[in-house]
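Request: Show me your protein:
***
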Amino acid sequence: MGVFALTLRLFHAEVRKLLLIIGLAVSFIILFQCFSFSYGKIFVPSPTSKISVVKLVSNATTLNDSNMAELFVNVVANDTNGSDPEEEARYKHNTLEANTGSDSSSEVNRYLDGSFSKFKDQNSHERKSKPRITQVAAKGLQSSNLSSGTSSSLLGANLPSQRNAETSIGTQHTNFKPLQIESAISVSQMNSLLLQSIDSSRSLRPRRSSARDRELLSARQEIGNARVSRKVPVLHASVYQNISKFERSYEMMEQILKVYIYKEGVKPIFHLPKMRGIYASEGWFMKLMEGNKKFVVKDPRRAHLFYLPFSSNMLRSALNGQDFQHVKDLQKYLKDYVELIAGKYSFWNRTGGADHFLVACHDWAINLTKNIRSCIRALCNSNAAKGFEIGKDTTLPVTYIRSMEAPLENLGGKPPSERNILAFFAGGMHGYLRPILLQYWQNKESDMKIFGPMPRDVEGKRKYREHMKSSKYCICAKGYEVHTPRVVESIYYECVPVIISDNYVPPFFEVLNWEAFAILVQEKDIPSLRNILLSIPEEKYLEMHARVKLVQRHFLWHKRPVKYDLFHMILHSVWYNRVFHIKTR
């Protein structure tokens, strides 16, 4: 009996220890969930052991004109297709915009329960070693407006109405500072990279020199030796890096350039241009290129350049379909296409793809085309820090086309004397930068009209245009990626662009002198934005405004292309980069 009693006491002691351990473990899990919630993420295991979609209201911003607000939501998405959850959310958000012609909408919440706010660390190592706190979530924490009741309600499928969110972002200025970021590539550094790429081209030397190669070499020599010319009165030297070179290069392009378009590839990914929405640039170019009779040849042996007529937007739309379950499937699809044409024709292998080009405007295009990046890529997402090669690749302008029949509708703006607004911005809180812009400048100064998303109805769109037409400077702040349609919109409405997007290579950088008609502000200088603009003398502003009007012709789509328009400028950039990168034995 004594042994039995001792054994029983020991057993009870072990049970108590086990219960204590279990209790501590449960307490730790509860504390961990609370800790995770406070940092903007809650991890809830799903039946498939994947991370479930969990929503967190992190902030809302009041719109001055409509007293409405947008609900900002952080989403942790199921990684069922191998794509980055943030990119998956971004794609769905942008697809909705492209289809609805809106910049931000209540439909966004129906299509996707929010949009990501990207946290940008000093470097990728720090990102891996520290808790990931989004900028928007950080502001939400500072405001201390998130109660446990609010967080619990968000675990379900229903989200509060957009109209019910009325917290003003402008009231949270205290103790908010922009993140320290990696040093941006300056314009002078971009120019140096451009010159270096010309001096030390990585283009593959052709296996044999052809008549087309000799024509390009001859053109390069003539362009390099170009003298000052006044033959083209519509061109003004102040907006070009070198007007003589541009004038001669454009002339040579018109005289000799021939392009072969591969017939291979099936719709809708190939040969089906989409000409409305935020990704319309690639569709307009495809439509006009395939219908062109001046440059296009049927005999590939006559061609200097070879066009791969695919749509990055349509390719991305195919993900999660029958044939594509993973981002790598899309990359492989393009690689297989190139292998198909390389096996059928000799031209890709002859130069390693250096005389081939593609035109792609989707955010993902720079990643989707990485397996075929030896060709010339005209990309909207021209991020010099993420794989865009200055001198080989060229920037495709983002043109938000709302009407195929009237792409130039509402062109122009007020004269400088009637532009009473110093700076204007309105748009959705895409990415990490725009919340910082609003944090510093929304409702701060009467001459700084800095808003969140404006209403999407006819009146809201009219007000957006009128603000651009009435402002001296239009803020072109990056969204999820470095590019934004506001750069071209500013030029349309004759408003001097203020580009805030580190490492963004502006369109036609090879020939245009962007510092002559635009202001490039580093992201870290957002707190000084107003002082920077006020420091510009009135005389200089008037010169820049006049130059915006001079350069405008290069950013216009015409259903029938005209000289120096956007179609010709895109083609010229591809031509120019090829001419200055060709190598022969």
Notes: Confidence is low (pLDDT under 50) at residues 35-88, 91-181.
